[in-house]
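2024-03-11 09:14:02 INFO queue: dequeued item FBP domain-containing protein, len=208
2024-03-11 09:14:02 INFO validating residues
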Amino acid sequence: MHRFVRPAPTSARSPQHSAFRRQDPALVRHHDRAASRDQHRRMLMQELTLTQLQKSFVNASRREAGLIKPPFDPDTFDWESHDFVGWADAKIPQRSYVFVPVDGEVRGVILRAVPPSRSHRSAVCAWCEDVIAVQGIRMFTAKRAGDAGRRGNTVGTLVHELFDCSAHARREPTGWEGRDDPEAFVAKRVEKLRANAEGFVRRVMDGK
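2024-03-11 09:14:37 INFO prediction written
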């Protein structure tokens, strides 16, 4: 924050008596880069064990959390290549699980798939917002945490049923999408994916 300095009584003021103390541009850039790196770390998937995954749920009972079985080995899984991780339950197809970083801590959410209607059409995923991969989008609901969830309140979202949004967000842009700066376009899309996924989990966590 700029520090206010009372003006000098004379009309000719020296630089050190300017109305506002100027910040060193190099210092400002350093702080901006540090803040960006800190935000990036908070949004990265962390390597988690099965026990940590089970304890991360915000809307599941202990029994429900204890039933999860990842379709991969948590010890060898490439966590950092994903903005979030999700899968469908092998025994209960209408149930899925997603794990999303929120403020540096991974939060787990149980989702329930809404049966598709007969007039089911293509749609845009609310998380990655990819306008090309518009097939395989499913409506899911999640019981809210706390008292709201116990009262039956839920939160809905449209998302790829394979939870492969990280790949869609990083696909090569079309000519009209990334004509100015393809790399910046992809980076912005990844950032938006992370923000959308985190925003959904925050809505689930708001158990009021």
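2024-03-11 09:14:37 INFO annotate: Residues 41-205 form one domain.
2024-03-11 09:14:38 INFO item closed
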